[in-house]
Each structure stands twice: as C-alpha cells, then as structure tokens.
Design goal:
The protein has a single domain, classed as 3-Layer(aba) Sandwich (Rossmann fold), CATH 3.40.50.150. 28% of the residues lie in helices and 26% in strands. It contains 6 helices and 7 strands. Strands 3-2-1-4-5-7-6 form a 7-stranded mixed sheet, with helices on both faces. Helix 5 links the parallel strand 4 and strand 5. Helix 1 crosses helix 2. The radius of gyration is 15 Å and the shape is globular. This is Methylase.
Length: 200
C-alpha cells in the first residue's frame, strides 16, 4: 500500500513511456510528479473509487490510482498506447480498451473519477482538449484535466471547471522537428464536474 505522495511519485516514475509515440496524437509522457500530485489530491478528497484514464498513453493515471486502491480502466484511441498501458499495469487492477474518447462506449451513469492529459490542439485540431472533457461527462462524475495555461479561461468557460493546480511540463526531445533537448510548457490542472442535468 502506498503511504505518501513521494512514494506514489517514485512508483509512477518506474513505468515506461510510449513505445511508438505519434505526433498527430500529441503523445508525450505526463511527468510522474504531476500525475502523482493530481491523483493524490483526488485520493485525499475521497474521490478514488472507479477511475478512467482517458487517452491513457502508458497508463500513468490509472496505475497511480490503482496503487491507491481504485479499480481503473485505461482508454486510448491508439492500440500501441493501450499495449504500453497493459505492459505497465501487470499485477494491478487495471483494465484497458482501445476506444475514442469522443465516441466512448461506456454507459451513461458510470460516474467514475476521470483523469486526462488531452492533446492541446497543436498538431491535432484546435479545441480537442475541451471536446474530450465534455464528451467524458457522460461517464465521469469528476474530471481532472491538464491544459495549456494560455487556454485556461476558455476551458473553464466551456466546462465550468476550476483550477486546482499549476505546473510546468518539461517535454523531452521526442520527434524529429524538436531542436532543443527539452521544451517547457506552462499548464493548469482543471477539475470539472458533470452538470446536474446530466446525472443518470
């Protein structure tokens, strides 16, 4: 059993990243420290029960949640990413499925706590991060999502969420167009809840 935020971060650091990262999906590994801090916040608020890691990639959010006792589901539109998640979550209570978060095959009223670091709309289409959050509200009672700081006001307006943390993403040299060893991006963590009129 995990007993501290630091221990959770150390466990998340041990998982491997994307085996075949895809630029069109804006696949970058979410830092272990950020994953651990978001999941730990949800844990101390008593929100971890059933968890969905949306656009899971290697499964960091699902794995961190499972280490704290939740039952987690990983979903991603990319088969390779789901394979990475399965590899990383061996021995934990984590299920995984290839699924488009914009067309989720999860029944209404599932009411999970959900985590996502969606594409920012740089290499994919603009506004996809908000689309993923809003689409997820059919099965998510609570959603923690990561967005560029510059988009925070627009995301809050469209989702009704509130900022619960700020951070800096350090993006390593992954793709051929990268010229620097690392890039830094200022981000916010937004906590949104399902509107009352969507409750099952």
């Amino acid at each position: 059993m995990i007993n501290s935020l630091k221990e959770l971060e150390m466990r998340v650091q041990s998982i491997h990243g994307f085996s075949r990262p895809k630029l069109r999906l804006e696949q970058y590994v979410t830092p272990a420290k950020l994953i651990a801090s978001i999941v730990w916040l949800s844990f101390i608020r008593g929100e971890l029960g059933r968890v969905v890691d949306i656009g899971c990639g290697p499964g960091g959010f699902a794995i961190a949640s499972s280490l704290l006792g939740s039952r987690s589901i990983c979903i991603d539109v990319d088969l390779d990413a789901v394979g990475d998640c399965v590899d990383n979550s061996m021995g934990l209570d984590v299920d995984a499925a290839v699924m488009d978060a914009l067309l989720p095959a999860i029944r209404d009223g599932f009411n999970a706590t959900c985590f996502t670091n969606p594409p920012f709309g740089i290499w994919s289409r603009r506004g996809i991060d908000v689309e993923m959050v809003k689409s997820s509200m059919s099965f998510c009672g609570i959603i923690y999502s990561i967005h560029k700081s510059s988009a925070a006001a627009a995301v809050i307006k469209k989702t009704g969420g509130t900022i619960v943390d700020t951070s800096t993403l350090l993006i390593p040299h992954v793709y051929s167009h990268h010229r620097r060893i690392k890039y830094s991006v200022e981000v916010v963590v937004i906590r949104s809840t399902k509107p009352k009129d969507q409750d099952a």
